[in-house]
């Protein structure tokens, strides 16, 4: 018996899963290798070429050993935050199996839509904190996105409280991992400051011990020079990012909202005050994931079939009158059309009932005693057009073809009449 398929195996997003669906990453998870290298390599260089020389400058209680230990512990802490940020569900909104049926509507030619085409309102209004907020319909996930939710084009998922997609962590930053992302960025900033300060302190000690100039001290310890340059450049990125997100948290904004609505003068309805905004991010309980990636995947329920055409009612048995009347109307229309001027070549295909069925219907009508009407062909007539008249902008049929079609209709009707009433035919002769 085949093993049932898991949710992560049938996942429609672009995410990557490890350890049987226990860890979820974005499609660019390989960038984590670069991010880890940018953290681990400088710290190892610091411990090997700088921190070990600083041990002897703090002989009391062997305090110098704390310098490399703090750097290693800080590094492990930052890596754990990076893993938590990038390996968990950021707040993905479940997809719907089919569009919301309560929002079904059909196009109207008067309003500029395609007649009979299924349509949805693109925007809905919901009440948030006493104000109306517009939410958009997502064609991919087939849901109306909750407030502050956006669809990530990289991961191909709708994420609650979407902040941005960070390529350095290889994951979307959303409601469930935003606090860990900020802690990762701020901790990286502190680690850069620590390594920069200890490297500068070692250069100071070298200048006091026999290297009177900065240049001679750098020549003696090129690793310190490299670390100072690296940390200075990194501080502009992670330090600037930390300051920017401190501003966003204090005003209860996301990166997406800040860049998109920066020029708008609309009020921020989510701002609860600086203190409450920080409490909401760092002290609120993390919502559980809406997905159980290791659970057995359920079969999708097919959406309800929607008919876009007019339904044709079945005619009751023994009632061919409506068909015969339709036949007469079509026959008269064919005669009128055959009198028009010639147009470009058009293929005409007379579909529907076959000739023997039509003759049977005509005989049934004549047997009932109706002799004043001439039965014509069946009501189902399909015309296939192979060319477009560019001059008139309409579909038309060739008059020669229509004349032959009308003549065939009349000949069949006369033949059916003579067959049903041979005595009347002889009298007319």
TrEMBL record:
<feature type="transmembrane region" description="Helical">
    <location>
        <begin position="63"/>
        <end position="85"/>
    </location>
</feature>
<keyword id="KW-0812">Transmembrane</keyword>
<keyword id="KW-0808">Transferase</keyword>
<feature type="transmembrane region" description="Helical">
    <location>
        <begin position="32"/>
        <end position="51"/>
    </location>
</feature>
<dbReference type="InterPro" id="IPR039859">
    <property type="entry name" value="PFA4/ZDH16/20/ERF2-like"/>
</dbReference>
<comment type="similarity">
    <text>Belongs to the DHHC palmitoyltransferase family.</text>
</comment>
<keyword id="KW-0449">Lipoprotein</keyword>
<dbReference type="InterPro" id="IPR001594">
    <property type="entry name" value="Palmitoyltrfase_DHHC"/>
</dbReference>
<dbReference type="GO" id="GO:0019706">
    <property type="term" value="F:protein-cysteine S-palmitoyltransferase activity"/>
</dbReference>
<keyword id="KW-0564">Palmitate</keyword>
<keyword id="KW-0012">Acyltransferase</keyword>
<feature type="domain" description="Palmitoyltransferase DHHC">
    <location>
        <begin position="136"/>
        <end position="260"/>
    </location>
</feature>
<protein>
    <recommendedName>
        <fullName>S-acyltransferase</fullName>
        <ecNumber>2.3.1.225</ecNumber>
    </recommendedName>
</protein>
<dbReference type="GO" id="GO:0012505">
    <property type="term" value="C:endomembrane system"/>
</dbReference>
<keyword id="KW-0472">Membrane</keyword>
<feature type="transmembrane region" description="Helical">
    <location>
        <begin position="223"/>
        <end position="249"/>
    </location>
</feature>
<dbReference type="Pfam" id="PF01529">
    <property type="entry name" value="DHHC"/>
</dbReference>
<feature type="transmembrane region" description="Helical">
    <location>
        <begin position="180"/>
        <end position="203"/>
    </location>
</feature>
<keyword id="KW-1133">Transmembrane helix</keyword>
């Amino acid at each position: 018996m085949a093993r049932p398929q898991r949710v992560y195996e049938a996942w429609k997003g672009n995410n990557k899963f490890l350890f049987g669906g226990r860890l979820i990453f974005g499609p660019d998870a390989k960038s984590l290798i670069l991010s880890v290298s940018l953290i681990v390599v400088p710290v190892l260089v610091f411990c090997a070429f700088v921190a070990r020389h600083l041990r002897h400058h703090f002989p009391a209680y062997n305090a110098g050993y704390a310098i490399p230990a703090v750097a290693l512990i800080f590094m492990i802490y930052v890596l754990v935050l990076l893993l938590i940020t990038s390996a968990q569900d950021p707040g993905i909104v479940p997809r719907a199996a089919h569009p919301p049926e309560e929002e079904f509507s059909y196009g109207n030619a008067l309003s500029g839509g395609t007649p009979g085409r299924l349509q949805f309102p693109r925007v809905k209004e919901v009440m948030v904190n006493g104000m109306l907020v517009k939410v958009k319909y997502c064609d991919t996930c087939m849901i109306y996105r909750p407030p502050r939710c956006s669809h990530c084009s990289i991961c191909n998922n709708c994420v609650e409280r979407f902040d941005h997609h960070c390529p350095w962590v290889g994951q979307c930053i959303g409601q469930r991992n935003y606090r860990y992302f900020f802690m990762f960025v701020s901790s990286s900033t502190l680690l850069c400051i620590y390594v920069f300060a200890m490297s500068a302190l070692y250069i100071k000690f070298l200048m006091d011990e026999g290297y009177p100039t900065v240049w001679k001290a750098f020549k003696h310890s090129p690793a310190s020079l490299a670390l100072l340059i690296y940390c200075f450049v990194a501080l502009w990125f992670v330090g600037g990012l930390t300051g920017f997100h401190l501003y966003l948290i204090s005003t209860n904004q996301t990166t997406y909202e800040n860049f998109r609505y920066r020029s708008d003068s609309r009020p921020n309805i989510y701002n609860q005050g600086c203190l409450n905004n920080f409490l909401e991010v760092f002290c609120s309980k993390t919502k559980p994931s809406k997905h159980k990636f290791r659970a057995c995947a359920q079969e999708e329920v097919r959406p309800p079939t929607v008919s876009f055409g007019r339904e044709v009612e079945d005619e009751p048995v023994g009632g061919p009158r409506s068909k015969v009347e339709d036949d007469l109307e079509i026959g008269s229309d064919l005669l009128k059309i055959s009198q028009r001027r010639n147009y470009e070549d058009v293929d005409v295909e007379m579909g529907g009932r076959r000739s023997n069925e039509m003759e049977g219907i005509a005989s049934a009508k004549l047997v009932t005693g109706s002799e004043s009407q001439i039965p014509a062909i069946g009501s189902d007539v399909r015309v296939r057009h192979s060319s477009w008249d560019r001059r008139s902008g309409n579909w038309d049929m060739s008059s020669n073809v229509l004349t032959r079609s009308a003549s065939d209709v009349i000949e069949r009707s006369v033949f059916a009449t003579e067959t049903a009433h041979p005595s009347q035919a002889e009298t007319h002769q």
